[in-house]
Amino acid sequence: MARVLNTIIVAVLAFLVYIVFSGSVSFYDLTTGLIVAVIVGLMFSNITLQNPNKVLNPVRWYYVLRYALRYFIIDETKAHLDVIKRILHPKAPVNPAIVKVPFYVESDYAKTAIACSITNTPGTVVVEIDENEKVFYVHWIDAKTLEPEKAREEISLVFEKYSKKIFD
User: What is the residue extent of each domain of the chain?
Assistant: First the structure.
């Protein structure tokens, strides 16, 4: 029964992603999306989900929506404006460094979400994840601090807050 539930959940998520990114709800796209989603669900459900009840929790979906809105409207905008300012400034003020950024999440999904959020934000790139030490090594275009906890506050605290609520 758990395998069937996992398959359905993965298929539905794959279908939604397909439709959103295709930008079309034509008969062809709906049919193609359904076929691809069922195949993806059957192939990957056993490795994608460990606890299907987490996916069905509406509180987690609320935080996914809040996180997406905050990330794309606030965090991305601020980071892009900051990088644009640095590019256009006559002296290109940068203070690059690779900093240690600790994390306090457990699931691989949460770690991945945080690392992707950091990397997708202009001016920062995760170059290494140390699972034993529980830190990201982040190349930061304008390192305001080299102290790990302060770097966490500047770079990843918001991402971690939401990732913990969504995935852990």
Answer: 2-55, 58-167
